[in-house]
Specification:
By secondary structure, the chain is α/β, with parallel strands linked by helices. It has ten helices and eleven strands. The strands form three sheets. The chain has a seven-stranded parallel beta sheet with strand order 3-4-5-8-9-10-11. Helix 1 packs across helix 2, helix 3 packs across helix 4 and helix 7 crosses helix 8. The chain is globular.
Length: 299
């Protein structure tokens, strides 16, 4: 991978062209993605700023809050522009204590679709990712036929345009593609967590988007002197460098960095213009091989 590869700034998500650098709304909810935001006006401002700066791919879910981020999106952006693609996800629900629980029965999935429609103020959802919750901590093997068949029925009824998968294994992606047309896969992937390398390349060949979350490791942030040194040399932040690397990793990667700050949003969007020299790319590519069992990336 060189600094001139994978530079297209857009991707055709089935029949919709989206900017590869989008926005994830998860952080607009309260602490632990639970409850309302600390500053509602600031949350609305972030959403409006994102769209004003050309973002046309927003990732959300009605179990963020729950209901909070979708209601914020509706209040900030409706009526929506024709080019805006809102991608949501179903398959989980929140416990009263904020816990993350599986919600994959046909009834739960149907309710989730209707909740998303109501809170976003839509008649049909652009893309719905089915989040598989066999293990809340990461992908776990098991057939996804039953929940995906239920979601495909909701698509047949006209409530969902396109279907994606989240928190899935390559085996489950293959199974899912035999059941329904899959337009995107959303999994954890970053400089240090590269288990989906082969899957990304397979999906790229078939024109299917891959949407990585936790570009810096999420709740256990990646610590790497290689990344920090690269950021310092380039006059950028470590997150900007990590996002720029993802944009160059494969042409089908779509990014959804989240923030509740307008200033941070602007930093994230500036990543699209950040050039990574070949020697920097080579150094960053080596981070995964040096990650210790403690989750720290060493030199």
């Amino acid at each position: 991978m060189t600094s001139t590869e994978n530079q297209s700034k857009t991707f055709v998500l089935d029949d919709r062209t989206v900017k590869r650098l989008g926005y994830g709304a998860m952080q607009l909810a309260g602490p632990g993605v639970f409850g309302p935001p600390k500053d509602r006006d600031a949350a609305l401002a972030v959403l409006r700023e994102a769209v004003e700066r050309g973002v046309n791919h927003i990732d959300t879910s009605d179990f963020y809050g729950p209901h909070v981020t979708n209601q914020l999106i509706r209040d900030a952006l409706a009526p929506y522009g024709e080019d805006l693609v809102i991608v949501t996800k179903i398959g989980a629900r929140r416990g009263e204590n904020g816990s993350w629980l599986s919600a994959l029965s046909p009834g739960e999935l149907t309710q989730a679709v209707h909740d998303n429609l109501r809170n976003l103020g839509l008649d049909v959802l652009d893309v719905v990712n089915l989040r598989i919750m066999f293990d809340a901590h990461g992908p776990a093997e098991g057939s996804i036929e039953a929940p995906l068949t239920a979601l495909a029925e909701l698509q047949r009824l006209g409530l969902v345009r396109q279907i994606g998968l989240s928190n899935v294994t390559p085996t489950q992606v293959a199974e899912g593609r035999r059941i329904a047309k899959i337009v995107c896969v959303q999994n954890q992937y970053n400089l240090a967590h590269r288990g989906d390398d082969a899957l990304i390349d397979d999906l790229a060949r078939d024109g299917i988007a891959y949407v990585p979350f936790f570009p810096l490791g999420g709740f256990n942030p990646l610590q790497s002197s290689i990344l920090s040194d690269a950021a310092q040399r380039l006059g950028a932040t470590p997150l900007q460098v990590a996002l720029a690397w993802l944009l160059r990793r494969a042409p089908n990667i779509l990014l959804i960095p989240g923030t509740s700050s307008v200033a941070h949003l602007r930093e994230n969007l500036a990543t699209a213009e950040l050039d990574l020299p070949n020697d920097t790319l080579d150094a960053l590519d080596g981070i995964a091989a040096n990650v210790s069992s403690a989750g720290r990336a060493d030199d």
